Amino acid sequence: MMRIIGFIFALSLSACGAESVKFSRMSLQVYNYSSENILSIKTKDSEGGVIGLRGTKLGGVNGTGIICCINIQSGAKELDLIVEYPNKKKSSIKASVEQSPWPEMPAYLTLHVLPRDKVVAEISPVHAFPRRDLVERQITKYKLKQEVPFSDAMDNGPAVVER
Question: What single DSSP character describes residue 60?
Fold first, then answer.
């Protein structure tokens, strides 16, 4: 009996120094600014899901509804994503998280899938809109030709909440 108590005590001591990782549970939405159809987007931990999102001409955007729910490590600055396309091609992509620090009440993870396998992650307490600034950056960076005019909804920019 004393051995069992000693063993349990030793286990509890080894756990004292371990830091627990905190996660934030939020809804996921995805905007696709690229020409590729997207079958699914998941984190390396299989968080996410099948979204079936059509591609668009450069300058346009297609979006999903809200997918509930996804767990993201609180305060993460980068997300490891796996994007699967209908042709069975999968891409591992590191998405940069724009917000640092995160908002106090993160409720939405919005993934902006841009041309050339670039993904920007936006964490916000409210529903986010498509982002004209992100696609304009890609057009300028790669000297791409815009194919369609931007929509008015894309002028709303990132969701910003002051503390």
Answer: B
